[in-house]
Write a structure and sequence with these properties.
Structural class: alpha/beta
Distance between the termini: 16 Å
Strand content: 25-35%
CATH architecture of the largest domain: Alpha-Beta Complex
Radius of gyration: 20 Å
Length: about 375
C-alpha cells in the first residue's frame, strides 16, 4: 500500500530545522506484513530526543530512514502466525522488539534482547526484513517502529494491546517516555518509599521519572534542568525543589537540600555533563541511574575510589528495564488510579508537515512531549 512518511536522507542538517527541513514528507510503499508481523494505522506518535539525535547526527543510524519510535495505533492486518491480535485492536509500540528466546529475554530482561538490538542497529524489523521502499529502493526502520508515518509494519513483539478507551496521544507516551522514565525509577532503581531523589533533565522522560518517584512515595525530590519553565512544571508535578542545572552552585545546593545527597539520582538528559552532575549529587552509599542516551563518543570521568570507599552504585537503564507486556498495562493502571498524571506531559499536536519546526522546538529545549497526529 502507499503511505506518507517522514524520511531522513542524511544527518547533520543546519539549524533552524524549519529552514533546512531535514525530514522530507514522501509517498512510500509499505509491504503487507510478513510472518509474525502486524500492520497498524498510526494514530499518535511522540517526538523524542532519540529521534533528534539521529537528525543531528549524534547517534548514527543507517539512512535513509523513516523516524519515530513512540507510537499508538490500530491494527489493520496481521501476518501468518499472529493469532493474538486482530484488526481493530489498539496497540502501543515499544522500541525494542524482544525475541523472547535469547539469554536476556529468558532472564526477563527484554530491553537487552540480542536479536532486537541487532535488528535496531541494522534498521530492519526483527525478522531482518525491510517493509518500506521508495521507487523500489528499501528504506530503513527506526527502532523497529518508524512511526512518523500514516501506517507502519512492525514485528508482533514490538506491540502491546491496550484498552480502546485510552486516547491515542496519551497511549503513545507509554511506548517510550513513560516506560523509560517511570521504569527507571520503579524497575532499575526499585525506589523504596521515603527515598530521596534527584532528577537531572526534565524532558518527557525526566518528567515521567518525577511522576514515577512521586507515585512510589519518594521523600525529597530535587529536579534540575536548564529551562525555567520545565523547573516550574516539575514543582507543579510534585518536586519539592527545582534548580538550574547550569548553575555552578547546583551540586552543592542539591546536596544541601537532600541532606548530604540523593539516595537515588537519575540522569535523563542524554549528556555526559548531566551524568557528572547526577553522580556529584548522589550521597555516599547511593545509586546513580543513567537513562539518557548520550552520543556514543561521549565519555564520563570517574574516580574508581569513590565506588569502593563510598560504596556507590552506577547503573544503566534502557527501556526502563521494562517488560513491556507487563509494565505498559501496569503503568496504565497507575494512570487510571490517578497516581501517574502523564497527560501533564503533553504539549501540542501537529501534522506531518510540521515535523521540522517541531524538532527545532525540541532542540531549543522548551517543550515536553509534542505529539504527531498523522
Amino acid at each position: 500500500m502507499q503511505i506518507r512518511a517522514a524520511v531522513l536522507e542524511r544527518p547533520g542538517a543546519p539549524r533552524p530545522y524549519g529552514t533546512s527541513r531535514p525530514l522530507a514528507i514522501r509517498e512510500l510503499a509499505l509491504e503487507e506484513p510478513g510472518p509474525g508481523e502486524v500492520r497498524i494505522a498510526i494514530r499518535a506518535a511522540g517526538l523524542c530526543h532519540s529521534d533528534l539525535s539521529v537528525i543531528d547526527g549524534s547517534r548514527p543510524r543507517p539512512l535513509p530512514m523513516v523516524l519515530g519510535h513512540e507510537a499508538a495505533g490500530v491494527v489493520e492486518a496481521v501476518g501468518a502466525g499472529v493469532t493474538d491480535l486482530r484488526p481493530g485492536a489498539h496497540v502501543v509500540a515499544a522500541f525494542v522488539p524482544a525475541c523472547g528466546r535469547c539469554a536476556p529475554c529468558r532472564a526477563e530482561r527484554p530491553a537487552l534482547c540480542e536479536p532486537g538490538f541487532e535488528a535496531n542497529r541494522a534498521g530492519t524489523l526483527l525478522s531482518g526484513a525491510r517493509r518500506l521502499s521508495r521507487a523500489g529502493a528499501p528504506l530503513n526502520h527506526h527502532l523497529g517502529v518508524s512511526a512518523f508515518a500514516t501506517h507502519a509494519t512492525l514485528a508482533r513483539e514490538s506491540l502491546t494491546q491496550v484498552d480502546a478507551a485510552i486516547p491515542f496521544p496519551l497511549a503513545a507516551l507509554f511506548g517510550c517516555a513513560v516506560i523509560t522514565g517511570v521504569g527507571a525509577v520503579a524497575n532499575t532503581a526499585e525506589l523504596p518509599a521515603g527515598a530521596s531523589v534527584a532528577i537531572v533533565g526534565l524532558g518527557g522522560v525526566g518528567l515521567a521519572a518525577l511522576l514515577g518517584a512521586r507515585a512510589l512515595g519518594a521523600g525529597t525530590v530535587v529536579a534540575l534542568d536548564l529551562d525555567s519553565g520545565k523547573r516550574t512544571l516539575a514543582l507543579e508535578l510534585g518536586a519539592t525543589h527545582a534548580l538550574d542545572a547550569a548553575s555552578a552552585q547546583a551540586p552543592a545546593e542539591a546536596r544541601r537540600l537532600l541532606g548530604g545527597g540523593a539516595d537515588f539520582a537519575f540522569e535523563m538528559a542524554g549528556s555526559a555533563r548531566a551524568l557528572e552532575l547526577a553522580f556529584a549529587i548522589t550521597r555516599r552509599g547511593g545509586t546513580t541511574v543513567a537513562a539518557g542516551l548520550a552520543p556514543p563518543d561521549a565519555r564520563f570521568a570517574l574516580a574508581p575510589v569513590q565506588l569502593v570507599a563510598e560504596e556507590r552504585t552506577l547503573k544503566g537503564s534502557y527501556l526502563g528495564s521494562c517488560v513491556p507486556k507487563r509494565d505498559i498495562p501496569r503503568f496504565l493502571g497507575w494512570h487510571a488510579a490517578g497516581r501517574l498524571p502523564v497527560e501533564r506531559l503533553l504539549d501540542r499536536t501537529l501534522g506531518l508537515e510540521e515535523l521540522n519546526e517541531a524538532f527545532e522546538a525540541l532542540a531549543l529545549g522548551g517543550v515536553r512531549r509534542q505529539i504527531l497526529l498523522p
